[in-house]
Amino acid sequence: MRPVFPHFPRAQDNATRGQTTGNSQEVLENALDWLVDGIALLGPDGDIVYANDALLALAERGDGFRIAGRTIEFVESNVRRRFRAALGAVGRAGKSPCDAGPTDFPVPRRDGLPAYIMSVRPLVCGQTPAPQHAQAGIMVLICDPLSRSAAASQILQKLFSLTNAEAHLAEALCTGVTTGTYAVDRGVSLNTVYSHLKRIREKTGCKSVPELIRKFSELNVPLRLSGPPNSA
Hints:
Elements: H1 7-17, H2 24-33, E1 38-42, E2 48-51, H3 53-60, E3 65-68, E4 71-74, H4 77-93, E5 104-107, E6 116-122, E7 138-143, H5 145-160, H6 164-174, H7 179-186, H8 190-204, H9 209-219
Antiparallel strand pairs: 1-2, 1-7, 3-4, 5-6, 6-7
Helix pairs in contact: 1-2, 6-8, 7-8
């Protein structure tokens, strides 16, 4: 949850500036729809009060979980047990200071794909929810590592104006691959690799590979492309 919350005020601000009706419920829902991860606001009984577009899209896959009516249903019984336990822990925390125990757990998927990561938290600690969502006291976040990587790549490319090939090289260097190994694996010359690296340094303001790695690590966002590299 920690990497998500810093982006929420920005998303809410963008949604607010895009509103002309002044409807606070629409502002909140639009802000949630800006997020890459699936978000649901639940009532104390676990029923869905609101689900953003990302969560609805994940649920439609039926891979590990689905939405039936106003409830989130899980394929595996142990996940169902953990979810009920998390709801109970968060519900107890809502009656006292927000000190709920660990309520993060994986939701396995088919075909060996990386599991979803689910987090269950009190919606707001020590404050009253907005009137339109007064029933909601619980926030559920479901992260798809594959979707997050693709979105993060797009963000980083736009942030630094990296080309597809430059982003692939930056990703490889950040995972410990040397320039020589990268050239052999990709079937390109070292001159091409050095040319990409030079442009990466110019665009990011980094003078060395270690500095580049530190910069991307500080962003706390994985750099990965969904498509093959090219020489652009």
